[in-house]
């Protein structure tokens, strides 16, 4: 394995960023509690890894204060956001926001397994314990084993005055902008197995 670093020239680096920006993704907020303090980070670099054992990963910038907190804690939560969670995502992506009480303006509840904050404006939630970490250049790849999983239909309603018409739809991210899902009557779900299911 070649571990040498090969910096890209400026034009290729710009093209690399442009290519990554054209990969549409969902939006998550990853949270952890370290030394009694809540830490949170908006992340689109999140994905599943394995079904057995149940593993997911999130990629964390080494410069982010969340980086050391989640490594120290060893447990974390993931909230997959609904369209209604855009303001929460924007706030928790804002660099330099106060650490203390940063979740005061974000409706949330506590995960039973980890105590991590899980955002109420989510459509699904996971609680994880760190399985392994890997060097990812200027980021760390944090792989977590899932301790608990729930989706909105399984969760108790919080009683908050939230927009119920938007809570069931995912928040998307594309080219530095938030977006929404456009449903088609002829979706993959209705017409047959998805490409992922076909290759399992």
Describe this structure in words.
The chain is an alpha+beta fold and 200 residues long. It has one domain (25-198): Pnp Oxidase, Chain A (Roll), CATH 2.30.110. Helix content is 20%, strand content 38%. It has six helices and twelve strands. The strands form three sheets. The chain has a seven-stranded antiparallel sheet, sandwiched between helices. A three-stranded antiparallel sheet has the order 1-11-12, with no helix packed on it. A two-stranded antiparallel sheet has the order 7-8. The protein is globular, with a radius of gyration of 18 Å. It starts with 9 loop residues before the first helix and ends with a helix. The relative contact order is 0.18. Residues 154-160 and 194-200 have low confidence and may be disordered.
Describe how the helices and strands are arranged.
Elements: H1 10-21, E1 25-26, E2 28-34, E3 37-43, E4 46-50, E5 55-61, H2 65-73, E6 75-81, H3 86-92, E7 108-110, E8 117-119, E9 122-136, E10 139-151, H4 164-167, E11 171-174, E12 177-180, H5 188-191, H6 195-198
Antiparallel strand pairs: 1-11, 2-3, 2-6, 4-5, 5-10, 6-9, 7-8, 9-10, 11-12
Short recap of the structure:
With 200 residues, this protein is an alpha+beta fold.
């Amino acid at each position: 394995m070649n571990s040498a670093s090969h910096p890209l020239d400026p034009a290729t680096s710009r093209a690399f960023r442009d290519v990554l920006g054209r990969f549409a993704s969902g939006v998550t907020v990853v949270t952890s509690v370290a030394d009694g303090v809540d830490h949170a980070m908006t992340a689109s670099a999140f994905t599943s890894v394995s079904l057995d054992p149940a593993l997911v990963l999130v990629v964390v910038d080494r410069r982010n204060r969340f980086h050391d907190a989640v490594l120290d804690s060893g447990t974390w939560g993931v909230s997959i956001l609904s369209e209604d969670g855009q303001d929460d995502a924007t706030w928790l992506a804002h660099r330099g926001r106060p650490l203390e009480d940063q979740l005061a303006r974000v409706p949330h509840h506590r995960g039973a397994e980890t105590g991590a904050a899980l955002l109420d404006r989510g459509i699904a939630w996971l609680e994880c314990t760190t399985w392994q970490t890997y060097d990812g250049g200027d980021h760390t790849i944090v792989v977590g084993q899932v301790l608990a999983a729930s989706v909105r239909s399984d969760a108790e309603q919080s009683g908050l005055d939230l927009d119920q018409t938007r809570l069931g739809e995912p928040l998307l991210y594309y080219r530095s902008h938030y977006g929404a899902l456009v449903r088609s009557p002829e979706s993959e779900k209705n017409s047959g197995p998805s490409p992922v299911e076909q290759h399992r």
